[in-house]
User: What shape does this take?
Amino acid sequence: MSKYFSILLLFFVSLFYGQKQDKNSYIPVEITKTDGVKMNVLVSKVQIPKISTFKDVLGGGDFNSKTKIEYKASESSPSEKITAKEISKIAYLDKDYDEALAFEKLKVKEFDRNGVLKDAKNDVFLSRIYDGKIGIYGHPNIICTKNGQIGPYMCEYTYSIFYLKNNQENFAVMPLDINLFDLKRSFDNFVNAFKVAGKDCPEFAKYLELFRKKMEDRNFQKEMRKGMIDYKKQVVKEAKENKLDTGETLDYISRKMFEYEARLYLGIVKEYEKNCP
Assistant: This one.
């Protein structure tokens, strides 16, 4: 799993700190259209968002059918555009033209205030970080603000968001909504998301019921919060000790925290794989 998000974070950091933001620079990608047709083209290397995660290279966190991606068939070809609505997957290629990082367009379902699973308003472009019976998709949320009118962008890791997708389904579900401040609903949604992704597996359902009770435990909550705070302090200290520059520090902290938060989701998915062969 670390291969996926190491590349992912490095790719994001390059958007802000790499190559002096050369807007004329293009990189190779493979675009898979919704009709299955694949296009090997070049897209602009840098698209600077104001407040962003790496997903802004595809028009923002939520899928926008009107977003257009500019591409060229070759360096000397004229620019053309394709709408996000026409794309099902976009893969960024390395120097050997192998897939380095891919974003898939996924339908998303979410729980309403009554705990009913419904279609979300928008699809999203997501990168898969774990490939299994239950796939894990996610991204680090990095807030970037500009220092004055002409100053550089200042970026900071805030939290990570994850989605689950049963490999037999065509939609993903988000276990934890950071904007939901109702603790009970958050716990219920978290467990129910795994139930949806796990489908019909009684043993996994039993495990999730026990985990749901554990989430209510104050000591468990305290340990989770303390663990994350202590780990981030440790990571920040390591970045300083290694004398990393601004871009390297952002990458290091974001990658480490993303890995740390992903362990919880991966651990639960491993329980599913153990109990539901």
The mean pLDDT is 80. The first helix runs from residue 2 to 17. The helical segments are 2-17, 183-198, 202-216, 218-241, 246-275.
